[in-house]
Write a structure and sequence with these properties.
It comes from Pseudokineococcus marinus. With 234 residues, the chain is mainly β. The protein starts with 6 loop residues before the first helix and ends with a strand. The protein has two domains: 117 residues, Trypsin-like serine proteases (Thrombin, subunit H, Beta Barrel); 102 residues, Trypsin-like serine proteases (Thrombin, subunit H), CATH 2.40.10.10. The longest helix has 8 residues. The chain has three helices and 19 strands. The mean pLDDT is 96.
């Protein structure tokens, strides 16, 4: 039987919600549940992922349904777990630092905010060479290393055009690709200290030392600051 963090399990309808699962705004194919966050003084629970996953790259209206699993994995209106709350707008005239959004979860939706290493509730800046992990909808649990920090000029194609990002974190997979399409929104963390360092948002199929592609992440502190939230403790 496939394990809890296998991609084929993460693409199914799963309750309680947990990091790594397939999720998307109803018009989007599928991305990944990065984790769960809260605002000081606000009793609501929020799901963290990318703007292009939860807000359809700024095209979705606040309050639109967010599904688990995403529509590419069979999600329908019956699989709604919450609604788009807020997204950091993507600026075509850039540079941008984050591709991030929140969905406010319905009150009756249970969550399990633990990762393969347990709880991840603290953050730090990524250091070059740091070994990291992520769990995502398409490639499941993967390990890699930070191969660049404070990277400027990362150009990514969106429906509105090419969007440029500065101050990004680059990760290279330890054994093949660290990520693939559909892993967008995954939280990238240090498995030793259980500290979050980035929010995965883009990648290439080629490049990197082994030619298996590169993954790009927003610095996690910039994401949380832009949204005014903090990681939720179990």
């Amino acid at each position: 039987r496939p394990g809890r963090w296998a991609a084929e399990v993460l693409q199914q309808r799963e309750r309680p919600l947990r990091p790594g699962l397939s999720v998307a705004q109803r018009a989007v194919t599928a991305g990944t549940v990065g984790g769960f966050v809260a605002r000081p003084g606000d009793p609501a629970r929020y799901l963290l992922s990318n703007n292009h996953v939860l807000a359809d790259s700024d095209r979705a209206a606040p309050g639109s349904a967010v599904l688990q699993p995403g529509s590419a994995d069979g999600g329908t209106a019956a699989d709604a777990v919450g609604r788009l709350a807020v997204a950091v707008p993507l600026q075509l005239d850039g540079p941008n630092v984050v591709d991030a959004a929140l969905a406010v979860l319905d009150d009756d939706v249970e969550i399990d905010p633990t990762y393969p290493v347990g709880a991840v509730t603290t953050t730090s800046a990524a250091d070059d060479g740091l070994v990291v992990e992520k769990v995502g909808r398409t490639t499941g649990l993967t390990r890699g290393a930070v191969t660049a920090i404070e990277l400027d000029g990362v150009a990514v194609s969106y429906p509105s055009g090419v969007v440029t990002f500065d101050d990004q974190v680059e990760v290279t997979g330890a054994d093949g690709a660290f990520s693939a399409g559909g892993d967008s929104g995954s939280l990238v963390y240090d498995p030793v200290t259980r500290t979050a360092v980035g929010l995965l948002f883009a990648g290439s199929e080629r490049g990197g030392p082994g030619g298996a592609g590169l993954t790009f992440c927003n610095p996690v502190d910039a994401v949380l600051e832009a949204l005014g939230v903090q990681l939720l403790a179990p």
